[in-house]
Amino acid sequence: MAVKNFVVGLFDDEAVLFPAVKKVRTAGYKLHDVYTPFPVHGLDHAMGLRETSLHTAGFIYGITGTTTALTFMSWVFNVDWPLNIGGKPHFPLPAFIPITFELTVLFAAVGMVMTFCYLCQLMPGVKKHIFHPRQTDDKFVMVIELTEKSNAEEIKRFLNEAGAHDINEQRAEAGWWYGRYDKNDEDIYARPANA
Amino acid sequence: MSLKYESTLREPLVDGVKDYHQVTEDIISPIEGKPGKLWYVGFLISLSLLGFGAFSVFWQIYFGVGVWNLNKTIGWGWDITNFVWWVGIGHAGTLISAILLLFRQGWRTGVNRAAEAMTIFAVMCAGQFPIIHMGRVWMAFFILPYPNTRGPVWVNFNSPLLWDVFAISTYFTVSLLFWYSGLIPDFATIRDRAKTKLRKLLYGVAAFGWTGSTKHWQRHEALSLVLAGLSTPLVLSVHTIVSFDFATSVIPGWHTTIFPPYFVAGAIFSGFAMVQTLLIITRKILHLEEYITLGHMEAMNKVIVLTGSVVGCAYLTELFMAWYGANPYEFATFFKYRAAGPLGWSYWIMMTCNVITPQVFWFRKMRRNVMVTFVMSIIVNIGMWFERFVIICTSLYRDYLPSSWSYYRPSWPEVGFYMGTFGLFFTCYFLFAKYFPVIAVAEIKAILKTSGENFKEKMEVYEGESAEQFAKAVHHEHAH
């Protein structure tokens, strides 16, 4: 990941934020991200993000669980050690249903949470740049990336007109790294931008 | 004009004048302060109960399962009663967090975090009983299907007891994941406002590096929805499978097809009662009356009266079937030894606590009375404990062979073990109430502008408008 330059603006109200997102997209600025303290419905569509495929992943994990349970139990009862349990059949499908169901749910849930953590790069000990400490409290933080073609002052003026306040320029690692939240992270910004 | 409109006819879910920051302050600041005296007293009592429980379990493991008062006739007593009771309590948490999410019930946001925590702690307590009651607990891993050097001899996949192993462990895992994934954004909130280095470090680790990115929220929402969809059949399956432990046997009093729905209703019934007990104390001590309102309590009391009546119907259906089924043994179990006989008193405690007393909740005044709710929540849980005791013990103590008829009262290690799980439960809950946000901060913020009291007042302007005017205004809002 690279260290980049950003212009950051704060919004107080989602009703102001939505039109601002639209304006940024029409103006053609590179919208890095919007950080919100809670899920704002429709913001992903307003930003033009595609739908997540996490559901599909969950379905695949679930199916894996189903087949794992069914094949394993059938293999044990028919191939590995065919034991006569009170004269019951070796492939008692109804009796297999509870465990099959539980494993389906277990695989789907564990798999989805792990995929979620992988996609969002979430893990204990991961440190990411927080553009404003109140982005997890009550402010909606819009972050616009500075490219070679864009002008910081122009974007600042633009954000001000769109209703943002506390507009500032930040130089930060936009990705993630292992670090500690109680440690000063100045050193990481010493690297040149777009290295 | 807010982005979503909700009628003022609906009661506000958050009382008082709030903005997003105030919500954070109200819920997070108890975590940052020092706990009160009451907290220390409660925590120490819980710890000592836990210690006594550990001693009772040690005693049982050291001297063997014979220190319990179980005998050849009554093979399951307090151990399995307590197991079913604790698992049942857990069910309300998942119902609130999953089923009510799918039903789009906004009021769940105020109570889901604490209820899910309760689920996890209750399942932890429940899991102790089947493991310890095996006697030789160091052999407990025999219940897992692992390749072993004895053949390998596998577990019996036909056995409901094995289904239980899978059901309870899956239930615990999925509930924990669901709960923790909801906690991540709130931990990030605590981390970003932390004043001390240690707090910043610990909550930073717990928050997994959450930033609140829109894409992450989108995935988080998708994850919550699918986990809710998975948990809904899961929670129904867990108590169904617990009921199979009994229903698939041939003991009169256990061998009935009504058990799965009857157990699930009973589980939700007792679980909601436990949620009420905990939340009435929590809201008082942490001053969260504006988030866990009388409206929340009323909604839960409605669930209690519904499920209580479902359970009542099940009791009557059982009695009817015992007579109509023309099986003399089943008839004897129900009419001679359950509703009457030496253990008959437990049946009538169950009937009074579960069927008769919850009927007070047909009255709105009673549903919204904190004291009545608190007392009722305890009565219901006593009743539900006796329900499991009645099902297990009164079906066993008079079996087919009169010479083996027996009576049962617990020995001190059995009582101590049960007390110990209370210790475990409340130790965990006290730690949770001190170090975790007891209300889902992000979720409350998401409903604040539609359901907060001060925001709803502004809606009255729109209530006066005609539908066409309103539609026009909304259209205009979204046009630019």
Main sheet: strands, sense, barrel of chain A: 4 strands, antiparallel
Mean pLDDT of chain B: 90
Low-confidence parts of chain A lasting 5 or more residues at pLDDT below 50? none
- The total domain count of chain A is 2
Number of strands of chain B: 0
The major pleated sheet of chain B works out as: none
Number of strands of chain A: 6
Structural class of chain A: alpha+beta
Rg over CA atoms of chain A? 25 Å
Q: Helical stretch count of chain A?
A: 5
End-to-end Cα distance of chain B: 14 Å
Description:
- The complex is a heterodimer of chains A (195) and B (480).
- Chain A is α+β, with helices and mostly antiparallel strands and 195 residues long.
- Chain A folds into two domains: 3-51 and 125-190, Alpha-Beta Plaits; 54-119, no CATH class.
- Chain A is built from five helices and six strands, in the order E-H-E-H-H-H-E-E-H-E-E.
- Chain A has helices at 14-27, 43-46, 54-80, 93-119, 152-162, and strands at residues 3-11, 30-35, 126-128, 140-145, 165-173, 176-178.
- Chain A has a four-stranded antiparallel beta sheet with strand order 2-4-1-5, with helices on one face.
- In chain A, helix 3 (54-80) runs antiparallel to helix 4 (93-119).
- Chain A is elongated.
- The relative contact order of chain A is 0.28.
- The longest helix of chain B is centred in the middle third of the chain and has 34 residues, at 214-247.
- Chain B is built from 17 helices and no strands.
- Chain B is 71% helix and 0% strand.
- Chain B has two domains: 1-14 and 452-480, no CATH class; 20-96 and 103-159 and 248-446, no CATH class.
- Chain B has 480 residues and is mostly helical.
- Chain B has helices spanning 20-32, 37-63, 78-102, 108-132, 160-192, 197-206, 214-247, 259-285, 294-324, 328-338, 344-356, 364-367, 370-396, 412-435, 441-451, 453-464, 467-479.
- The model of chain B has no long low-confidence stretch (mean pLDDT 90).
- In chain B, helix 4 packs antiparallel against helix 14 and helix 8 (259-285) packs antiparallel against helix 13 (370-396).
- At the A-B interface, helix 1, strand 2, helix 3, helix 4 and strand 3 of A face helix 1, helix 5, helix 6, helix 7 and helix 15 of B.
